[in-house]
């Protein structure tokens, strides 16, 4: 084999060595039982036709490559935003390995979460013993201040009752009676990670707020929602609120937990909303959510206690940020400071500078409902056309909101939102009605190759590029970053299309 200790090859060049090529060719010939190449090509071409699109959109009982994850992932994410909190997922171990690896691969940080490791016996007799042992082990081994319990499919299918299980475990001495163990049932076969985020957040708020006396004050609670760019976004959010002089509490702040420094000390926990702040948040004047679909039940709960509530769609770009800042100003009575107003002007200036390259570009966008709304809104602001907008976890209400957004701009004509559809549907849409660019997560890199449509990675998860999440996309400053990301891709594409010497390079310009 060509690998040697003197010259270690990375897997990309290694698998191009003759020995590996031969081995892979033999594997294909002897074991894969593939149809002939021309048959494969013919079928692949047919799957890009209108005829296939109609069949694809007629399917009901099958999902192919959904752009969403299951509820407990959102529960683990939101719990990570509280001080010294360990996520405890009641159910099967493999599921929890998936949440940890998903978050670690995206944030390039270790992600801690434990499982009650239910197996066949627990599936038959119930998982109470797993809960009793699991909580005791978690408390003894990981020194948490709080353990946030959620569930996988398995625990939900057999109907394990978290409230009674946790109380039973406390009675058995797994954790002290007064130790904080909020919980949420997060059945993975309904909703998505955004539903799980909402359920777990509500579980934590209820744990601290239920039965307590409420004395409304002046501060504002902010719920960031499930967000792959949370590290950069939460810091930008705090910078904007600090500039405004607003008294606020971020309810679940994962910025430090998913961005620990390398300084010789391993931090299992870092930062997050303190337990005291979470308790005190009951007395806020208002709770605002940066993402409507991540917080429907949590906001209902806050409203039931007398707090003002409002939600946004991932405030990004001009109108999205305006809306958020004006609401904060209205509730707090604080003016939007000159510095933020200037940032707004700078973003508009940058958009105007690049207008010639942005205008009329067509896009396919996929991701969570609030992200897709925000991204489409920003694209419309740039004079682009968000033709295909898809959220697997979007519903009819979201589709109606999107239709209203499209109707608000001349560039929205011919744009359509697809709720409940997956990335295989998106492939049909893009194959039959091509667009210039695609915006979404790393999962679309195969669509990029298949349909030759450049992918701009701006949503969760981003596995194959590094560190994007450290920079904000919210606010005017974040909008500037999104704008640069779009433009870089547009210019890279233009360069690649004009690079042939003597043929197309009359447009391979040095200055643009
Ligand atoms: S869908 Fe169910 S089985 Fe799959 S990872 Fe989520 S909880 Fe586990």
Topology, element by element:
Blueprint: H1 11-14, H2 18-31, H3 37-46, H4 50-58, H5 71-79, E1 85-90, H6 93-107, E2 113-115, H7 120-125, H8 128-142, E3 146-151, H9 153-158, H10 162-171, H11 193-209, E4 220-223, H12 230-244, E5 248-250, H13 275-280, E6 286-289, H14 296-304, E7 308-311, H15 317-332, H16 338-353, H17 355-358, E8 362-366, H18 369-381, E9 385-391, H19 396-407, E10 416-419, H20 423-432, E11 437-440, H21 445-451, E12 455-457, H22 475-497
Parallel strand pairs: 1-2, 1-3, 4-5, 4-6, 6-7, 8-9, 8-11, 9-10, 11-12
Helix pairs in contact: 4-20, 5-6, 5-11, 8-10, 11-14, 15-18, 15-22, 16-22, 18-19
The structure holds iron/sulfur cluster (SF4).
Cofactor: [8Fe-7S] cluster
Keywords: ATP-binding, Iron, Iron-sulfur, Metal-binding, Nitrogen fixation, Nucleotide-binding, Oxidoreductase
EC number: 1.18.6.1
| Bound small-molecule species | iron/sulfur cluster
Q: Please state the structural category.
A: alpha/beta
Q: Which range does the strand content fall in?
A: 5-15%
Number of strands: 12
- Assembly type: single chain
GO cellular component, one term: molybdenum-iron nitrogenase complex
Organism: Zavarzinia aquatilis
Family: Belongs to the NifD/NifK/NifE/NifN family.
EC number: 1.18.6.1
Structure in words:
Helix 11 runs parallel beside helix 14 (296-304). This protein has four domains: 1-34, no CATH class; 71-209, Nitrogenase molybdenum iron protein domain (Rossmann fold), CATH 3.40.50; 220-259 and 267-336, Rossmann fold (3-Layer(aba) Sandwich), CATH 3.40.50; 342-497, 3-Layer(aba) Sandwich (Rossmann fold), CATH 3.40.50.1980. By secondary structure, the chain is an alpha/beta fold. The model has no long low-confidence stretch (mean pLDDT 96). Helices cover 48% and strands 10% of the residues. The protein has helices at residues 11-14, 18-31, 37-46, 50-58, 71-79, 93-107, 120-125, 128-142, 153-158, 162-171, 193-209, 230-244, 275-280, 296-304, 317-332, 338-353, 355-358, 369-381, 396-407, 423-432, 445-451, 475-497, and strands spanning 85-90, 113-115, 146-151, 220-223, 248-250, 286-289, 308-311, 362-366, 385-391, 416-419, 437-440, 455-457. The chain contains 22 helices and twelve strands. The strands form three sheets. Strands 10-9-8-11-12 form a five-stranded parallel sheet, sandwiched between helices. A four-stranded parallel sheet has the order 5-4-6-7, with helices on both faces. The chain has a three-stranded parallel sheet with strand order 2-1-3, sandwiched between helices. The structure holds iron/sulfur cluster. The site of iron/sulfur cluster has 7 residues, from helix 6.
């Amino acid at each position: 084999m060509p690998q040697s200790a003197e010259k270690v090859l990375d897997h990309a060049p290694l698998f191009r060595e003759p020995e590996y090529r031969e081995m892979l060719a033999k594997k294909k010939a002897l074991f894969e039982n593939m149809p002939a190449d021309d048959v494969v090509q013919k079928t692949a071409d047919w799957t890009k036709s209108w005829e296939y699109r109609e069949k694809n959109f007629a399917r009901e009982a099958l999902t192919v490559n959904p752009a969403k994850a299951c509820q407990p992932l959102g529960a683990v994410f939101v719990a990570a935003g509280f001080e010294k909190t360990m996520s405890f997922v009641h159910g099967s171990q493999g599921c929890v390995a998936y949440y940890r690896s998903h978050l670690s691969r995206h944030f390039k940080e270790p992600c801690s979460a434990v499982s009650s490791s239910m197996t066949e016996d627990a599936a038959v007799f119930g998982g109470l013993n797993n809960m009793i042992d699991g909580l005791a082990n978690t408390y003894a081994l990981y020194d948490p201040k709080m353990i946030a319990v959620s569930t996988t499919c398995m625990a939900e299918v057999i109907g394990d009752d978290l409230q009674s299980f946790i109380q039973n475990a406390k009675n058995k001495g797994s954790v002290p009676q007064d130790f904080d163990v909020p919980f949420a049932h997060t059945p993975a076969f309904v909703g998505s990670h955004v539903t799980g985020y909402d359920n777990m957040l509500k579980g934590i708020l209820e744990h601290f707020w239920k039965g307590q006396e409420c004395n409304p004050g002046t501060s504002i609670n902010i719920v960031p929602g499930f967000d792959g760019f949370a590290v950069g976004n939460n810091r930008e959010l705090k910078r904007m609120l600090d500039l405004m002089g607003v008294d606020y509490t971020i309810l679940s702040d994962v910025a430090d937990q998913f961005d620990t420094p390398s300084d010789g000390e391993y931090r299992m926990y870092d930062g997050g909303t303190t337990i005291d702040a979470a308790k005190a948040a009951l007395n806020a004047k208002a709770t605002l959510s940066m993402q409507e679909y991540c917080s429907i039940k949590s906001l209902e709960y806050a409203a039931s206690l007398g707090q003002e509530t409002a939600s946004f769609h991932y405030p990004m770009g001009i109108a999205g940020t305006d809306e958020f800042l004006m609401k904060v100003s209205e509730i707090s009575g604080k003016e939007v400071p000159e510095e933020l107003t200037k940032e707004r002007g700078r973003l508009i200036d940058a958009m105007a500078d690049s207008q010639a390259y942005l205008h009329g570009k067509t896009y396919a966008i996929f991701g969570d409902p609030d992200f897709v709304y925000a991204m489409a809104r920003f694209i419309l602001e740039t004079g682009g056309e968000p033709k295909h907008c898809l959220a697997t976890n979007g519903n009819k209400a979201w589709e109606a909101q999107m239709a209203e957004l499209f109707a608000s701009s001349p560039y929205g004509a011919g744009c359509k939102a697809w709720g409940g559809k997956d990335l295989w549907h998106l492939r049909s849409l893009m194959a039959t009605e091509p667009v210039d660019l695609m915006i979404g997560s790393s999962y679309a890199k195969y669509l990029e190759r298949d349909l030759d449509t450049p992918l701009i990675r701006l949503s969760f998860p981003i596995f194959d590029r590094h560190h994007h999440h450290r920079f904000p996309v919210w606010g005017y400053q974040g909008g500037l970053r999104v704008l640069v990301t779009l433009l870089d891709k547009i210019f890279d594409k233009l360069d690649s299309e004009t690079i042939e010497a003597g043929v197309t390079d009359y447009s391979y310009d040095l200055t643009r």
